[in-house]
């Protein structure tokens, strides 16, 4: 396929792998902070092309996976109310809450609808003035601008029956939290290209300076990832720690300034709890004062609801790169895509889902 095959060229992939092998003289641990990159690595066997000294570990880069259990439970409670039209992207419907999931709520009669844009939810609110329409806004900086636009449009239209359940999170504070942990083994990062397409990569320079870890912004195709790993290894082997941009066909240093301006207008930075990880200071987005009327947690009286994570699910350790999916005792047995214990197994970007689909027979 044009514009895709060129990034999956097997001969070029082998050349990148050979150069990485040639340069590598020491053990190195590299974390990718993107679920899309994780799936590409496992699907295409990128890690199997690398020398044994290089270990790739999977970070908290799946937006569905890091959405905390208590936020799923709040979504379930709102979606079950008869006056509500609850809207969400499709990948949230099978994420397990404490007792059930959104797909089961829909099966029992809840009006749960898949939308392809937050603006679809705004349109539904216009078309159904007698119903409460709620949009479930999750994800990293990649999806936050579209959620911000929904809030902005709802304010312009003066909608009284529209609200948003917000669980947006930010990547740089998560990297900071990982690096400050005494258990951290990460020596370099592959940063997510789509996040940096929106935000640029200015925020990574202080992290590189503070922790002396290379950060390379990378894309999602096999050659993008191999090239990014090569750039990381070149830095590690030479004792450097810099921010570099492999994904230059999409990312510039400053990012998408209009998108950032809209996010700054609609959102404010807040502490945010991450599933399996805990609360990370200043790692999330919440609605700013002018848009607080669209806060579904406040509207439905759920702001103070807190839920503990189940001990049986090891997704928190997997999201921190401390455990590989196949090392979890429940993997492929008690935990499968049909009966998931956690979001990392059910999400299309989850590490457990990637290992189950591509590696469980190994």
What is the secondary structure topology, with strand pairs?
Blueprint: H1 10-23, E1 28-32, H2 35-43, H3 46-49, E2 54-58, H4 69-79, E3 84-88, H5 102-107, E4 111-114, H6 118-127, E5 132-139, H7 144-156, E6 162-169, H8 171-180, E7 188-192, H9 193-199, H10 204-211, E8 215-218, H11 222-238, E9 243-245, H12 257-266, E10 267-274, E11 278-287, H13 296-299, H14 315-319, H15 343-346, H16 351-358
Parallel strand pairs: 1-2, 1-7, 3-4, 3-5, 5-6, 7-8, 8-9
Antiparallel strand pairs: 6-11, 10-11
Structure description:
- The protein is an alpha/beta fold and 362 residues long.
- The protein has two domains: 5-59 and 171-245, 3-Layer(aba) Sandwich (Rossmann fold), CATH 3.40.50; 69-170 and 255-299, HypD, alpha/beta domain 2 (Rossmann fold), CATH 3.40.50.
- Helix content is 39%, strand content 18%.
- It contains 16 helices and eleven strands.
- It has helices at residues 10-23, 35-43, 46-49, 69-79, 102-107, 118-127, 144-156, 171-180, 193-199, 204-211, 222-238, 257-266, 296-299, 315-319, 343-346, 351-358; strands at 28-32, 54-58, 84-88, 111-114, 132-139, 162-169, 188-192, 215-218, 243-245, 267-274, 278-287.
- The strands form two sheets. Strands 4-3-5-6-11-10 form a six-stranded mixed sheet, sandwiched between helices.
- A hairpin with a 3-residue loop joins strand 10 (267-274) and strand 11 (278-287).
- Helix 6 (118-127) runs parallel beside helix 7 (144-156) and helix 7 packs across helix 12 (257-266).
- The chain is globular and about 65 Å long.
- The mean pLDDT is 93.
